[in-house]
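Raw record, unedited: Peptidase C45 hydrolase domain-containing protein
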Amino acid sequence: METSSMEEKNLPVFELGPCESGYNLGFLVGQRFTKQIRSRLATDLIFQNQLLPFAKTQQSQPLLRSLSDANRERFPSYWDELLGTAEGSGVAVLDLMLLNFRKEILPFVPKTTVSLEVDHAEDCSDVLAFTLNSVPPSEDEIVAGGIGRNFISRDLLEATNMDDALTRIRSSGASVGHSYNLIDIRARRILNVETASRNRISVREVQETPFFHANMYLHLQIQQVQDENSLSRQKRAALLPKQTKTDFLSLLGDTDDKTYPIYMKGPTLYTLCTALIDLDEKTLSIIEGNPKERQVTRIFLMSSRINAD
């Protein structure tokens, strides 16, 4: 993708490749983002107060071993990327493992404190784009030691088209669950895919009716944690207009509910940035700050190789 920078100082972009190995790729990423990785480890309260103490107990060892073995066997090159990132940033492999498998580990941490978090990201190629966010299956729906959601999401970056992406998701063997929005840039087609352990999956095509998805299952029939934060955001979104680009950005920037706003400013949960994928203009725009202010930081152009075909 081509890129057009509006404010390069705020959003670091690192382009590299091809790399001789997954380890080398991870090492270069870790080296480039050492400051950000160490800052995350130092300030992430879930990591510091729950994951790290749990990892030091005998109780955690069978789970950590099974996660390591299953994910290294299924995705050896991605596991090497993780090892390389740890080496490049000078942090412990265990620390990065705990961050990457937090959703797969937290259900088994003794419940002295209950923490729910929002997880949302976007990735694009010239043919397929996808966004994703976490969903909260109940504990008895989780398979200990399965494949981690972050490794599955990493594998989606290798998908060549919508069908390939669906195949990778269907056969993933996930430990927990996830929600994906798959976007076929050429065909202008969007699928919402909800997943759970034991390769359970539900696919909903998004058509003319606007679709909003908080951190909760909407169409896969599964027992899930009742999260008031997600329920409130889902209800609030249903009340807001969703017809124009401005409507959608205003919705994503809504702070009307002071307890559970759609746009979060802390102190526990934060909206880091907003991504807007425009299938008419074939662009991916990154907005830092409240999206209803429409202050675009960077624009990625997704059409260069499409138009050349």
